[in-house]
Amino acid sequence: SSLKIGLIPADGIGKEVIPAARQAIVALGSDIPKPEFINLHAGWETFTRTGVALPHETVEILKSECDCALFGSVSSPSRKVTGYSSPIVQLRKELDLYANVRPVVSVAPNAGEQPAVDLIVVRENTECLYVKQEQQIDGPNGKEARATRLITERASRRIGQMAFELAAARSRKHLTIIHKSNVLSITDGLFRETVRGVPALTGKYSDVTIAEQLVDSAVYRLFREPEVFDVMVAPNLYGDIISDAAAALVGSLGLIPSINAGDDFVMGEPVHGSAPDIEGKGIANPIASIRSAALMLRHLGYTKGADRLDVAVDQVIREGRYLTPDLKGTSTTQEVLDAVLGKL
Ligand code: NAI
Ligand code: MG
């Protein structure tokens, strides 16, 4: 049988890096079931063309025909646009992809310059401030804007369980819970308590050590001594910020992959956005997308294919001959892809 992969390049450099990931998957040959790709629309451009950012058809095909998917990046505007809502945020909800898993690993650290980073950020993907319940009223102090922050026991428990599961599979088996419950004692308190309760609830993970850190000092520590972190679990917004920050430690956002995972579906997605500053120049780093494909395959149990992609990418980075400008190289997306395909 085949492996049906939905491809949603969406906007900007997504259109450049997702095709690269596709080629890398094809190059795996018989290490995975024969891939079949289904091209799907979503994003800002789709919205400007059709009036919907996430067509119903895209969701339906993902649900009914695809085994997994790869998503590129959307160019969401920073201003409020009537009728527009970020398709990636919506897709995570529609497909109940409750965990965003982002490994950040430094390859070939230069001694004394780059610290050795090897951590996974496990970000809750469905709630927190990203439920997007915002409102504005005219108050006594002028305009007044409010947002609801939702934390539930169910979502905290399942993200906690995913984080413990990932930590238990690693050599250091160390989990750090990120929160700010000194200030937000009810919402972050619930998150913290619930995650802490996972071992007792499941009777598992007794070999995982648990630490916790307030989100602000966690960022500080991430820059000072990233080696203290192994697996970090966080509510949605903190997880978003921490993983971008961690990306800076290893050189470029263009290296960092993620998966959006639920119980029934997995969608790979580079952590970066649509990068309008380099869009169309053919110099976007395809590595985050290739690694996202690897993570997706690994999640589905295709370990051999996933390992091959990771090893090929690591070799290309270590050799340093073919690197895009974000890594201070002069190569194009195509040249980096060709180098990876050469290793495969
Ligand atoms: P960004 O991640 O697009 O870019 C930040 C910086 O990193 C830019 O200088 C960019 O050139 C560079 N960069 C990112 N990916 C790269 C790659 N693969 N190769 C080389 N350089 C790379 O973040 P920014 O500029 O804040 O957002 C731009 C747009 O992307 C916005 O419309 C935002 O809404 C959207 N966005 C979408 C996301 C998604 O689809 N999940 C996530 C983050 C932002
Ligand atoms: Mg982000």
Question: Layout of SSEs?
Answer:
Elements: E1 2-10, H1 14-26, E2 34-39, H2 44-50, H3 56-65, E3 68-73, H4 87-94, E4 99-105, E5 118-124, E6 134-139, E7 142-147, H5 153-168, E8 174-179, H6 187-196, H7 198-202, E9 209-214, H8 215-224, E10 231-234, H9 236-249, E11 259-261, E12 266-268, H10 287-299, H11 303-319, H12 333-343
Parallel strand pairs: 1-2, 1-3, 3-12, 5-10, 8-9, 8-10
Antiparallel strand pairs: 4-5, 4-11, 6-7, 11-12
Helix pairs in contact: 1-10, 1-12, 5-6, 8-9, 10-11, 11-12
The structure holds 1,4-dihydronicotinamide adenine dinucleotide and magnesium ion (MG).
Word description of this protein:
- With 344 residues, the chain is an alpha/beta fold.
- It has a domain at 1-98 and 257-344: Isopropylmalate Dehydrogenase (3-Layer(aba) Sandwich), CATH 3.40.718.
- The protein is 39% helix and 20% strand.
- The protein is built from 12 helices and 12 strands.
- It has helices spanning 14-26, 44-50, 56-65, 87-94, 153-168, 187-196, 198-202, 215-224, 236-249, 287-299, 303-319, 333-343, and strands spanning 2-10, 34-39, 68-73, 99-105, 118-124, 134-139, 142-147, 174-179, 209-214, 231-234, 259-261, 266-268.
- The strands form 2 sheets. Strands 2-1-3-12-11-4-5-10-8-9 form a 10-stranded mixed sheet, sandwiched between helices. Strands 6-7 form a two-stranded antiparallel sheet.
- The model has no long low-confidence stretch (mean pLDDT 94).
- It binds 1,4-dihydronicotinamide adenine dinucleotide (NAI) and magnesium ion.
- 1,4-dihydronicotinamide adenine dinucleotide binds next to loops.
- One of its GO terms (cellular component) is mitochondrion.
